[in-house]
């Protein structure tokens, strides 16, 4: 079954370019388009979508708030934030709102297609190390106000799961974590899955965000 994609951007020419790239793929289909966040949410009421390519700076309802509302819905599609500049504060806000990753608007077509497939399969597009750069820069400026409840959730983790969580938050891959803790990569993957389930998170990127918000990892790379 083809991956159903919705394009959300107020620039018609940009949507046209993305649509042409996706239409050439046998495993992808553009099922909806929207010029702003409000129209995107409206489209989701009548159209089944797997992945949303979401611009951030749009009229009426911006992409960050639209992402927050979409990701709060049951069985929500995955959201990829589109930004103009690397390390954009909007990308940080989008990740906190529930996006599975962010990409630059001038991304090469091959990378865009790989990102859509990765997100659809349940992986995060943004490497944890890139997320850490975002958090190091912006987290002191954007307090979450939700750290205390999330601290209680972190307390549900076993000692080993907490170890794995800290290493994920420091940007290590499953293979690197396996080497550090002398575990099999499959075992690490199992631990990561349990961490996501216990904390109610969608992917590894949100593990990194939570680690910063709760003080388990501090800006600059230290652990709390």
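Q: What amino acid sequence fits the structure above?
A:
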């Amino acid at each position: 079954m083809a991956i159903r994609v919705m394009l959300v951007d107020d620039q018609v020419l940009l949507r046209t370019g993305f649509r042409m790239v996706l239409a050439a793929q046998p495993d992808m289909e553009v099922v909806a388009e929207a010029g702003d966040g409000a129209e995107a949410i409206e489209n989701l009421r009548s159209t089944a979508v797997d992945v949303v390519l979401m611009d951030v700076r749009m009229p009426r309802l911006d992409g960050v708030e639209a992402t927050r509302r979409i990701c709060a819905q049951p069985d929500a599609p995955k959201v990829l934030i589109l930004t103009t500049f690397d390390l954009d504060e909007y990308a940080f806000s989008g990740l906190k709102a529930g996006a599975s990753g962010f990409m630059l608007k001038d991304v090469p077509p091959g990378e865009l297609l790989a990102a859509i497939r990765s997100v659809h399969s349940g992986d995060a597009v943004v490497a944890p190390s890139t997320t850490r750069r975002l958090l190091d820069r912006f987290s002191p400026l954007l307090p979450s106000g939700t750290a205390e409840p999330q601290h209680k959730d972190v307390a549900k983790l076993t000692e080993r799961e907490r170890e794995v969580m800290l290493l994920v938050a420091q940007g290590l891959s499953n293979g690197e974590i396996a080497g550090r803790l002398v575990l099999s990569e499959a075992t690490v993957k199992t631990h990561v899955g349990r961490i996501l389930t216990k904390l109610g998170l969608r992917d590894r990127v949100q593990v990194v965000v939570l680690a910063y918000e709760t003080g388990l990892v501090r800006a600059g790379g230290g652990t709390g």
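Q: And what stands out in the fold?
A: The first strand starts at residue 3 and ends at 8.
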